[in-house]
Amino acid sequence: MSTAAQRFLQDAAVKSADLMHREVIRRGMDSYDAAHLKGRARIKDWEAARQKCQEIKREAINHLDRYLLQFEEKVIARGGHVYWAANSEEACSYVKNLAARFGVRTVVKSKSMVTEEIHLSPALEQAGIKVWETDLGEFIVQLRNEPPYHIVTPAMHLNRGQIAQLFREKLDPAIASDDPRDLMAVARRKLREAFFAAEMGISGANFLVADAGVIAISTNEGNGRLCTSLPRIHVVVTGIEKVIPRLEDLAVLWPVLATSGTGQGITTYGTLIGGPRRAGEVDGAEEFHVVLVDNGRSQLLADAEQREVLHCIRCGACLNICPVFRHVGGHTYGTTYPGPIGSVLTPHLNGIKEFKHLSYASSLCGACTSVCPVKINLHHHLLQNRRNATEAGATKSSERMMFRAWRSAMLHPRIYALGGWSMRKALRILYGLGLAGSILDPMRVWNRYRSPVPLPSESFRAIWRKDRKQDRRKNLGAN
Amino acid sequence: MVQTKEAQTEKAHVENASRDGILQQIRAGLRTAVPEPAAIGSEHVIFEPIIFEPISNPLERFQQECVSNLMECALTADCAASARQLSEVLQPLPEGEIFVQDDPSLRRLVEMMTELAASTRAIRWSSEGAPAEAAQATVTLAEALIAQTGSILVTSACGGRGASVIAPCHIVYATTAQLVPDLATALGRVSQERIFDSNSFACVISGSSRTADIEKILVQGAHGPRRLVVILQTGS
Amino acid sequence: MKRKVSLFIPCFVDQLLPQVAVDTVKVLRRLGYGVDYPEDQTCCGQPAFNTGYWDEARPCAEHFVRVFKHADVVVCPSGSCATMVRTFYADLLASSSLRADALALASRTFEFSEFLVRVEAVTQVGATFPHTVTYHASCHGLRELKLRDEPLQLLRQVNGLTLIEMVRSEECCGFGGTFAAKFPDISGAMGNSKAENVAATGAEFVTAIDPSCLLHLEGILGKRQAPTRTIHLASILAHESRTNEAQKDESLPQEGP
Question: pLDDT-derived band of residue A142, with 50, 70 and 90 as boundaries?
Fold first, then answer.
C-alpha cells in the first residue's frame, strides 16, 4: 500500500468518526442543495444544458491543438504572452523569472486550483516574495497554513468562531465579532492594502475562449477583478484543457457553472481579458502572461475511455453530492483535487501506483455522474481505474489469488454450493462459541460496525431443490 | 526597433522550449480514436432544444433579476429624473471622491445634477486617471444590459477596469434601449462588434460583490462594491 | 398461464437471504407466471468486476450467459446484479466469443420491480402489509436502471401500507461491496447516516430493491439496536392479509394451474 493510501485510510477513519465534522459538512451541503435546486429551476431544460456543455467541451478537447493555437495567436497579437509549461517546475520557473525580472515583492492571488497543483505559492515564497491569497476562503486556509478543503468553498470546514479566533491570532487581537459580515470587512481592509501595493496579480481562468482570444474568469467576491485590474503584471495560470471554441459558448457554460458550483444563476463577475492594457485605457496590467500548464493532461488525450475527464469545468458539484466526500471531507483525500473528479484524475496526473486507492474509496453509487454538468461518466471511470490498476500489476497478489480461487468456485456450481454451505456452517459454530468479532472471525471487519449477518440453515437452491422433489412426488408443476 | 508581429511570435516560440513538445503530444493523443457517445434517445429531435425560457418582457425580467441579484434598479423618465436619482444616491455617501467615466452623456448628467444639488461633490473624471483607493462611488455607462441574468456589460471603455470594482458603490447610467434579452445576444454582439479589438477587458456584472465562504452564509459586499445601482432611463 | 420467468438469484441472496428469493417466487406465481430457477447459476461476476479483476470476472459472466442462454426472460430481485448484466456485461465481454449472447441476454434481464411495472405494466400484486414503511433508493437501480418511481408504484398499491418519505433517500447506504471491506470506517459512517435518516421517519420497516443495501443496513440498525427492521420489496409484496395467509414459512408456494 502506498504511503498516500495509508494516510488516506487513517485520516478517513478519524474523519468518519468525527460527528461534529460531519455536521458542519452536512449543514454546508444542505445549503448548497437548496440553492442548487433553485438554480436548476432557472434553466428550462437542464438535461439539454448538460448535453450542450458536453458537446462544447468535447469539440474543444477533440481539437485541442487548433483551439489553443487560435487563442495564443490572438493574445500575442494584442501584446500578451503565452507560455507553454510541460510540468509544475517549468510553470513555477516561468512565474518566478517573471517576478524577478520586474522586481516583484508582493503578489495578490485569486483562486486557482492549478496554482495549487503546481505548488506555485511555496515556490514564490522561497524566492522571498510575499503571496496573498485574496479569495476569502483561500485567505482563511492560507492563514491556517492548510490546503483548501473544497475546490469552490475552501474554508467550509470551519465555523465563524474558529475564523474569528484565527483572525484574532493572525491579524488583529481586537476583533470582537464573529459575524460573517464583520469578518469579511476585516479581510477586506487587510487585503485592500495588498491589492494596491502588489506588483503582480495571479489568477486562474475558468475558460480560454479561442475565437475571441480572451480568458474568462467567473467570480463573486471582486478579488479576482482587483487582482486583474490593479497590479502592473497579470499572470494567468491555467490548464491546457480549459479552452472552449467560441465566446457564445459562455451563454450556456456560465449559467451551468454557476448553478453547479453554488446554485447561482450566474456568478457576480464574468470577467473577460484579452491582453495588457491598450494605449488610451484608464488602467489595467501592462504585462499580460498566460501560462498554459500541461502536467499530464496531454497524455490523458490518448486514453480513449477517459479523454472526457478533460471536459471537467471544476464546478465542484461532484464533491458536493458525493457521500464519501460528505463523510471524510476534502482534506482526507490528500490531493489537489478531492472528491470524485480528484479520484479519477489524480492517478493520471500523479501516478496510478501512488493514488489508485482513491478509485477504490467509492461505493460507485453514481451520484457524481448524475450531477456532472458536462456529463463525465465519473463512476465508470473509477471502475476503469480499478481495472487499470489490476492490469498494471499494481494490486496485491494475495487479492488476485483470492479472486482466482473465487472464480474457480463460481465456475463449478457444486463447489460453490458446498463452499457456501460450509461457510455458513463454520460461522454458525464460531458465533455459537461467542467468537464473533474475534481474530478467528473472517467477518470481523463486518462485525465492527454491524450485527452479524444472518446464517440460514438452507440456501435458496436447497429450498428450491426440495420443493422440486416434492413437486415431482406430488406430480404438480409444469417443470 | 519595433518587431513585426511575426518576429514577436517567432521569438516567443523560440524561448518556450516545451511548446512544440506539448503540441506534438496533444496531436499524438488526438490520433486515438474515441468512440462517439451513445445517442441520448432523442433521435426525433429536429430543433435545437430550448435551454432557457424565452424572455417576453426584457425590462420586467431585468428588474426581477436585479432584485434577486441584490442590485438596485431605478427607472427614470428622462435626463432630469436621472440626474435627481444620481444626486439621491451620491448625497448620503461619506466624504470622498466620486469617479466618473468621461463621456459626454455623463458630463451632461453631472452638470444637471450639480445644478439640482445644494452641495457639490469632488468629481474625478476617468480622463484624469484611475479611481483612487478611497473613492466612495464610481459612475459609468454600460455597453449593454442583459435581462436574462440582470447583468450589465462593461468594457475598458466604460471608465477602465477598476471603475466597476474599486469603490463601495458602483452606479451605472443606462437606457432601456440598451437592454438585450439574454447572454447569447450580448456575447454575440461582443463578437460581432469586435469589442476586443479596442478593449483589453470586458465584464458581465450581475450584482454586488458577495461571498458565502463563511458557513455558506451570504455576505453582500466582499472585495468589490457593496452596492450596484442602475439608473435606467426609459426616455431619451 | 402467463410467460415463464427465469430467476436470477444473486449468490449472497441464495446463501444469506433465501427468503427474498422465496418471496420473489411467491409473488410471481401469485400473478400467474411460470417460474424457473436454473440451478447451475452461481455468481454474475460483480465482486471481481467491481474490484478491477475483469479477467477473473469474465469466465463467471460467460458461465452465467450459458446458464441463462435459453431463458425467455430473466428476473432478479437485486438492482445491482441486474445492472451487472444489463450495463456491464457489454464491456466485460467485449472480446468474448459469447458477446452476442451476452448482449441478447442483457436486453431480456430485468430487476424484479422493473419487470412487474415496466415490462408487464403490473402495479397491483394483491399484497397486504399494514405497517409503516420507508423507502431507500438503492443506487444501481436508481442511476443505472433509472428506476425511480416503479418500486414506489408497487408499494403504494399494497393494502394497509403507509409510505413515509426519508430525507436523502437517494444517498448511498455505504455498502458498495468491496468498498465495505476496504474502507470499513467510511462504509460504517455512511451506513449510520442512513440509519439516522431511517430513524427520523419513525417507520417500522425500511425497504429497497437491493438486498445488499438491506443486508448492510440490517447490520447497522442491529448494532444500533434500532427498532426499524429491513425488508426487501419482494417480501412486502409477498405478504398477504392474515385471513388469507395459508402458511407463514419459508417453503415455496405451489405453482398455479
Answer: very high
Q: Which amino acid type is present at position A351?
A: G
Give pLDDT tens digits for B20-32: 999 999 999 999 9
pLDDT of res. B38: 61
Asked whether A and C share 3 or more beta-carbon pairs under 8 angstroms, the answer is yes
Do the Cβ atoms of A323 and C174 come within 8 Å? yes
Quick one: pLDDT at residue B13?
A: 64
- Site from A76, A225, A293, A348 to mutate, B interface, most B CB atoms within 10 angstroms: A225
Whether C5 and C19 have beta carbons less than 8 Å apart is answered as no
Burial category of A423 from C-beta neighbours within 10 Å (exposed 0-12, middle 13-18, buried 19 and up): middle
What pLDDT digit, counting tens, does each position of A9-55 carry?
A: 999 999 999 998 988 888 888 889 999 999 999 999 999 999 999 99
Q: What's the fold here for domain C132-238?
A: Rossmann fold (3.40.50)
Quick check: is B54 in a domain?
no
Note the pLDDT of residue A436.
87
Query: pLDDT digits over A202-228, tens only?
Result: 999 999 999 999 999 999 999 999 999
| In a shared domain, residues A206 and A246 | yes
Asked whether B182 and B146 are in contact (CB, 8 A), the reply is yes
Cβ of residue B19 closer than 8 Å to a chain A Cβ: yes
Q: Is residue B4 part of a domain?
A: no
* CB–CB contact A467 C252 (8 Å): yes
Structural domain total, chain A: 3
Going from N- to C-terminal start, the domains of chain C cover 4-119, 132-238
Assess whether A90 and A207 both reside in one domain: yes
Distances C144 to A55, A72, B195, C70, C105 between C-alpha atoms, Å:
22, 42, 46, 25, 17
ipTM for the assembly: 0.93
Residue with cell string 463512476: A379
Q: Are A85 and A201 within one domain?
A: yes
Instruction: Select from A342, A365, A395 the last residue of a domain.
Output: A395
Nearest to A220 among B182, B188, B210 (CB): B210
User: Is A62 inside any structural domain?
Assistant: yes
The model's pTM is 0.93
**Count of the separate structural domains present in chain B:** 1
CB C1 within 8 A of CB C256: yes
> Cβ contacts (< 8 Å) between A188 and chain B: which residues?
222-223
- By CB neighbour count within 10 A (0-12 exposed, 13-18 middle, 19+ buried), where does B105 fall? middle
Partners of residue A20 in chain C, C-beta under 8 Å: none
Whether A374 and A443 map to the same domain: the answer is no
Contact C15 A420 (CB under 8 A): yes
Burial class (CB in 10 A: 0-12, 13-18, 19+), B7: exposed
Q: How confident is the model at residue A468 (pLDDT cuts 50, 70, 90)?
A: confident
Q: Residue A469: pLDDT band by 50, 70, 90 thresholds?
A: confident
CB-based contact (8 Å) between C139 and chain A? yes
